[in-house]
Amino acid sequence: MVLPTTNFERVALKKPLVLLASGIVAVTVIVVALIFLRVFRIPFFQVSLLGISNSLVHWIGWMGTLYIAFATPAYPIVKRKYPEHLRTMLNIHVVGNLLSVLLVSIHFAHQVTRPASSYPDLGTGVVLYATMILLVATGMVLISGVGKKLVKQVHFLHPAFALTFYTVIVMHIIHGI
To answer: Between the ranges 14-18, 49-53, 73-77, where is the mean pLDDT highest?
Structure first.
């Protein structure tokens, strides 16, 4: 495989990915808005997996978080060790993580819109969600090329937010225990 050498070639390769990523972000915003407006809600019921019982919405959040937690480190590893698979891995990284953000967003929106009588403690969850949104924002800047003058800063911030995500997710899990 021949890797693109000019900026035009790089942008041409990323355009479908940027459009797909933008579409997933738009769907996420719409779904979260519908949950906030109480137009769409997943009914509350318990699901037992591996002897652990939680609500379906909680398991949806776990699925999204676990995908992000395990798939995110795979991208830089493949990028360095197998550069011929870079385009495929970038597509998997972007699309998979954005779909996982959709799942986590459904979980977060349901938590935030719970009635006052069963409102959760959102301390670490708010920080975790904000970190995830910053990850998405910096990732979108990187793949779209919008902030060409900010690329060096964003190349630093994106992995920094990923490390923050890992730190906060550990604290969030410990907090929930």
So the answer is: 73-77
How many domains in the chain?
A: 1
DSSP string spanning 16-49? Answer: HHHHHHHHHHHHHHHHHHHHHTTSS-PPP-EEEE
Judge whether 1 lies within some domain: no
Query: Could you give the C-alpha distances from 141 to 10, 39, 41, 154, 156, in angstroms and in order?
Result: 14, 31, 31, 8, 12
| Domain CATH for 112 | 1.20.1420
With contact defined as beta carbons under 8 Å apart, do 131 and 164 qualify? yes
Q: Is residue 2 part of a domain?
A: no
User: What's the predicted TM-score (pTM) here?
Assistant: 0.83
Structure tokens at 129: 């969600």
Which residue is associated with the tokens 């090329």? 145
Determine the structural domain holding residue 74 and report its residue range. Answer: 7-176
For the beta carbon of residue 113, count every other beta carbon within 10 angstroms. Answer: 14
More reliable by pLDDT, 26 or 149: 26
Residue 164 CA to residue 19 CA, distance in Å, equals 27
Residue 37, amino acid: L
What is the C-alpha separation between 55 and 46, in angstroms, rounded? Answer: 4
